[in-house]
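Reminder to self: keep the SMILES exactly as supplied, no canonicalising. Ligand is pyridoxal-5'-phosphate.
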Amino acid sequence: MPDSTNTRAMPRDAALRERAAAVIPNGMYGHQNVHVLPDNFPQFFSRGEGAHIWDVDGNEYIDYLCSYGPILLGHAHPGVDRAAAAELETSDCLNGPGEKMVELAELLVDITPWADWAWFAKNGTDATVYAATVARAATGRGAILRAGGAYHGSAPTWMGLERGSPADGTIEYSYNDLASVRAAIDAADGDFAGLMVSAFKHDVFIDQEMPTQEFAQGVRDLCDAHGAVLILDDVRGGFRLDIRGSWAPLGVDPDLSAYCKAIGNGYPISALLGRDSLAKTVGRVMATGSYWYSSGPMAAAVATITTMQETSGIAHIHAMGERLRNGLADRAAAHGLAIRQTGPVEMPLLIFDADDADAKADLFTLLEVPRVRMFSAELAKRGVYMHPFHNGFLSAALTKEDIDHTIAAGDEAFAAVRAQFSDDPTPETN
Ligand SMILES: Cc1ncc(COP(=O)(O)O)c(C=O)c1O
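Structure tokens returned for the bound complex:
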């Protein structure tokens, strides 16, 4: 278990940050830049094993971010690493793919009841952008509907050319709001090509929401009525919530489904799954990349999925998630703090009610969410890595001991927040 008492000094991290600032814009790009995180969060890491990670200064943490999702079975999983290494030694980068591509496509089609084919790339963005392209090519129309605030990748298709500029050809609706979907279809004025929907609502700073049955079935019916393509963005939820796809429990099947993150337990691979009706379109719409055929990550994906099946990995993650959620709720209540934990227990988000007034929905500005910032900083001091405002990701390597260590650290962290914000109302007086 991580040491809860050490000073967690970070001299190597500081030196690397200084060197990085000289040769990398902002010292770091994208959401992995820690400038929005509490000061004691390390920028650089050296190692991961199971549910634990170590920063470059040797400080150990129980990991509740899992590399923003890819780590599903735990870091450096021996079975996955062996499977990938065997391919890397022989057939990783040749003039065409190895056998593993077919094996992985067969496995995905087999476990996904509605899917007839699979297509592979490297990043979630590759898959979501290509899904939109396929929807447009198949329908001969242009408009892609997407939920306001939802993240589908950092390409111009979703974010415009610059952050804040509207993406061409997309029209926004509100998650779980069918009336807004109908309004977006009207706004498309006969040009409705496809509807992109994430497995659940997971914008930063606001409560996560699971899709209602009515909403999921409603978007399916509206796409059918208009001859448009329903695209499930399962990049974030895929393989953590349900091996068949995150909407399988709802009984609502998409036409295309984009995966990345957890599929290869950290090896770079993404996938688009689809129905026969779109196979011809995919066959003619060119998309490729230098490393989209490498077999190491494909072998890793086969090993990840089969290991999850054989070990009931999702059930274990769910049980650990419930233990964590119940334990933290209990400790927060004991300190008279009003918190909300939303979204699936496998991918939790914790919000302090008293932070609501100040929260700003912008990942890249300095955030006025002092209680949750302090809470996560106090956790980090005690060897628990939990992002303050991005949903967490739990791995199958977590043990009850990890969870109980986290709840004990949470107890002390809540106490620190209570002491600092002693004027906050307690839940009883709310
Ligand atoms: C729902 C969703 N879609 C797409 C993406 C983009 O994936 P990638 O960062 O692999 O391009 C992400 C990444 O966080 C995501 O969460």
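Points to follow up:
The mean pLDDT is 94.
The chain has two domains: 11-63+312-429, 78-310.
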